[in-house]
Amino acid sequence: MEDSSIGEAAYRRIRSDIVFGRLAPGQRLGLDRMREAYGASISTLRELLSRLASEDLVVAEGQRGFEVAPVSAADLREVAALRLLLETHALEQSFAAGELDWEGGVVSAHHKLAALERSLLAGEPADAALWKRYDWEFHHALIAACGSRTLLKAHAAAYDRYLRYQMVAVVFRGEVAADEHRKLLDAALARDAATAREVLRGHIDGCVAQVLDTGGLDAFAPGCSPARAGASPPQGAVPRRTSRRRASSASG
C-alpha cells in the first residue's frame, strides 16, 4: 500500500497546479503522465482526482478519465457570489469578537501584502504565488476571529476557486485593489463591518468585471484546445497590471 504521505503531497501539488493555472481549464489529466509528474500510483491518482472532483476543481468524464474543471463567466459569478456571502458574514462575526491579538494579525498581514503590492506597482519582479499567499493571509486574518471553523473551511474552498479565475485570467487591478485593501484594514481597526462589507463587495465585483471586460477567459471558451489554453501563467509569473483607467472602471 502506498505511503499516505506520498498521496497527500501529490494531492497538494495537483491542487496547487490547478488553482494557479499550471494545469489549464479543460486540460485532460492523463494518468500515466501524472504518475511521472507527481510520483503517485495510478490507483492513488484516481482517488486524488475524485477528491478534487468533489471540490469542483476536476471533472470526471466516465470512461474518458479526468480533466481540469472548465471555467466560464457564469461559474465565475457564482463563485464570486459565494465568496462574498461567506466572507461578509465572517467579517461581521470577526469584527465583533476580535481582540488585540486579532488586530495585530490583521495589521501584520496587511503590511506584507502592501509591501508586495508596492513592488508590483513599481514594476519590480515578484512571485505570483507569494503575492496571492499574502492576499490570502490578509483576507483570512480579517475573518480569523469569526469563531467558526466550518465557516473558515468553506471560505477557504470558495477563495481557492475564485483565485483560480484570477490566475488563469492573468490580471492585476493595481492601485484600485491596493486602496481597497487599505480601506478594509481601516474598517477592521474601526470595527466598522458595514463599511467593510461595501468595500469587499466592490473588491470582488471589480475583479469579476476586470476578468470579463478584458476577455481573460476567452482562451478557455468551448472550441479552444486546452493546449492553447495552456498559455496560463507559468509558475512564478505575476499577472499583468491593467491601466489605471481600466482598473478604476472595473472597480465599479
From TrEMBL:
The keyword Transcription applies. Residues 4-71 form the HTH gntR-type domain. Keywords: DNA-binding, Transcription, Transcription regulation. Residues 226-252 are annotated as: Disordered. PROSITE patterns: HTH_GNTR (PS50949). It comes from the Bacteria. It holds the Pfam family GntR. This is FCD domain-containing protein. The lineage of its organism: Bacteria, Pseudomonadati, Pseudomonadota, Alphaproteobacteria, Acetobacterales. Residues 241-252 have a biased composition (Basic residues). One of its GO terms (molecular function) is DNA-binding transcription factor activity. Signal peptide: none annotated.
